[in-house]
């Protein structure tokens, strides 16, 4: 079944949890799609996980278009959402519309995601008016890492929590079809999800949101630079890869690979 923005809304109404993971290229995207994941996000976390930067700040529009096109080729059922990278939408509504348009037209995305609340409402409205579904992203928004002074939990203080709830309601009113809530206290995420008609998808936001998203390489134990508390590792693939690569190198060095069955 093809998942659309309408499917996600219906899932929230029925109380069915939404599953979401990230992908940056066709190989993993195909595996996620075939495993029945509802939403595949081409996250700008690609800048850290794929390209090796320390933050998502350096990611460019051309890079996001490239990643999105690669993922598009492998995704048949999941809703394909692509991140708008830093400075592709903050300066003006024209920038936002052009950038979002590129992700749909050149990348093949079905929706875009932008970070921020009150400050991006005009950008959200102009994209929605042009027929581009927008997912919001609130809480510990990685593009604001320099303003936050790190990747710490957001919304712990009463005034911050009130601002986050206000931002969530404003994004919904501006036409966002869904929100990501990242690294905020679980009771606050539960309260926001309860107040919204649109689905809230959590990452480090407790169990009461309408769905969950993780970075695929985190939950597979592939990305070893750091392990946030909210990540559950469902595999230890980095260790598996190192084990396999060492075995291959050992076989080559000791002339055990290739053997006759692997030769012509
Ligand atoms: O860039 C990304 O991968 C994200 C998710 C972690 C939500 O924004």
Structure description:
- The chain has helices spanning 5-14, 26-34, 46-49, 61-72, 93-105, 121-129, 145-148, 158-174, 186-195, 216-219, 237-253; strands spanning 18-22, 39-42, 79-83, 111-115, 134-139, 178-182, 200-203, 211-214.
- It is an alpha/beta fold.
- It has two domains: 5-233, TIM Barrel; 237-264.
- It has an eight-stranded parallel β-barrel with strand order 1-2-3-4-5-6-7-8, surrounded by seven helices.
- The model has no long low-confidence stretch (mean pLDDT 98).
- The protein binds 3-methyl-2-oxobutanoic acid.
- 3-methyl-2-oxobutanoic acid binds at residues 22, 41, 43-45, 83, 180, 203, 213, 215.
The best one-word shape is globular
Order of helices and strands: HEHEHHEHEHEHHEHEEHH
- Percent of sequence in beta strands: 5-15%
Tally of strands: 8
Q: Measure the end-to-end span.
A: 44 Å
Class by helix and strand content? Answer: alpha/beta
CATH class of the largest domain: Alpha Beta
Quaternary state reads: single chain
Q: What's the total helix number?
A: 11
CATH superfamily of the largest domain: Phosphoenolpyruvate-binding domains
The hetero molecules present are: 3-methyl-2-oxobutanoic acid
| Helical coverage, percent range | 40-55%
Question: How many strands, which pairing sense, and closed or not: the largest β-sheet?
Answer: 8 strands, parallel, barrel
Q: Can you give the mean pLDDT? A: 98
- Which regions have little confidence, pLDDT < 50, spanning 5+ residues? none
What is the topology, as strand order, of the major beta sheet?
A: 1-2-3-4-5-6-7-8
Structural domains: how many: 2
Under CATH, the topology of the largest domain can be stated as TIM Barrel
The CATH architecture category of the largest domain equals Alpha-Beta Barrel
Global Rg: 20 Å
């Amino acid at each position: 079944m093809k998942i659309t923005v309408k499917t996600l809304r219906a899932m929230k109404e029925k109380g069915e949890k939404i599953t979401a993971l990230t992908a940056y290229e066709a190989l993993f995207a195909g595996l996620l799609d075939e495993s029945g994941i509802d939403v595949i996000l081409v996250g700008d976390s690609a800048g850290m996980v794929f390209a090796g930067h320390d933050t998502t700040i350096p990611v460019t529009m051309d890079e996001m278009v490239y990643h999105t096109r690669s993922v598009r080729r492998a995704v048949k059922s999941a809703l394909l959402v692509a991140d708008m990278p830093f400075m592709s939408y903050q300066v003006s509504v024209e920038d936002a519309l052009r950038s979002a348009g590129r992700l749909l037209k050149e990348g093949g995305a079905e929706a875009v995601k932008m970070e921020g609340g009150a400050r991006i409402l005009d950008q959200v409205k102009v994209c929605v008016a042009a027929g581009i579904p927008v997912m919001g992203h609130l809480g510990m928004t990685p593009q604001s890492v320099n303003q936050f002074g790190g990747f710490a939990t957001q919304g712990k203080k009463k005034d911050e929590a009130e601002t986050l709830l206000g931002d969530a309601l404003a994004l919904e009113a501006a036409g966002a079809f869904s929100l990501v809530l990242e690294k905020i206290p679980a009771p606050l995420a539960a309260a926001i999800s309860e107040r919204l008609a649109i689905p809230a998808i959590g990452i480090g936001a407790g169990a009461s949101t309408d769905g969950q998203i993780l970075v695929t390489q985190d939950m597979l134990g592939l990305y070893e630079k750091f392990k946030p508390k909210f990540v559950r590792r469902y595999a230890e693939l980095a260790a598996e890869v190192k084990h396999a690569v060492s075995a291959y190198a050992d076989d080559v060095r000791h002339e055990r690979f290739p053997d006759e069955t692997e030769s012509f």
